Amino acid sequence: MILLTPDTKNYRQLAASHVRSSDKVLEIGCSTGECTVLLLRHLILLQHQHFLNQQKSCVMQRSSSFHGQIVAFDTGYDMIEQARNRLLSEFDRLLPDDICQKSTDRLFPDMVQFHKVNALANPKGAQSHAVDGNNRTPDVVLIDIGGNRELKGVIRMIEWVQSAFQCSPRLIIIKSEALAEELTIPHGSNDNGRDGESDRDQSVHNGGSACTSVMPSVMESGIILNAQEWFESLLLSSADDAKCKPAKNAKIS
Question: In this structure, how many other beta carbons lie within 10 angstroms of the beta carbon of residue 145?
């Protein structure tokens, strides 16, 4: 399933609210770690709640490791370092008191990993970082590669996520103004005049997709009708030589 939003606040709320305690989360475009910190807090809270439930069930043994994991990508060293420092400074504070005595040097890299990588420029390297040594594929993927990033780049990143792993992610959450706007523009416009061209035509000239014959619509529940056909047409119109795969289903928030 795909969740789509143009809004940063909503994106972060979706990310935190949909992650489970044992999830491996791949965050593409972590920037300085604002969303990553929310994910870390949520995973630690869920782990602590799991321990409390074990206590109530008289299961008293507690693990000093975490089942949830975050792998964060960005293309800038400065962004990666700021994000890592942000999470390290809060890590001890976020841990329950009885775990704080454990070695942060051991626990932190088990739970959070940062990599400077561009999945579009180096797909094999990104795939290797995402699965790491345990060969565990992501359960949830977050994509925020620039709120005003051209549509083609966003579509290519989604295609990479869907094709890079043996097991498809349970959920993909995307922040993209361009992709969300694509749902609001009338499809199939034949207006070719520069002065009077539609927003959709302008998006094509600016690196967006070509016009498609598929007309998606959003229900009150947030489900996109014709999502599979729509996304497939976007992939076909934005890819040069790559073999594209359609999304199975999608929602917009």
Answer: 21
Q: How far apart are CA 136 and CA 159, in angstroms?
A: 19
The Cα 117–Cα 131 span in angstroms is: 14
**What digits encode the pLDDT tens for the residues 14-58?**
998 999 988 999 999 999 999 999 999 898 888 766 555 555 555
Query: HSE of 130 in the Cβ direction (CA atoms, 13 Å)?
Result: 30
Look at residue 193 and tell me whether its pLDDT is greater than 50: no
Rounded distance between C-alpha atoms, residue 76 and residue 29, angstroms = 10
**Cα 220 off chain centre by:** 23
- Given pLDDT bands bounded at 50, 70 and 90, which one contains residue 221? low
Query: CA torsion 102→103→104→106, rounded to 10°?
Result: -120
Tell me the two tokens of residue 171: 């959920």
**pLDDT beyond 80 at 154:** yes
Model confidence at 78: pLDDT above 90: yes
Q: In this structure, are residues 33 and 86 in contact, taking their beta carbons and an 8 Å threshold?
A: yes
> Measured in whole angstroms, how far is the alpha carbon of residue 145 from the centre of its chain?
9
Distances (CA, A) of 51 to 19, 20, 54, 65, 109: 17, 14, 5, 12, 21
* In contact, 2 and 234? CB cutoff 8 Å: no
- CA dihedral sign of residues 75, 81, 86, 91: positive
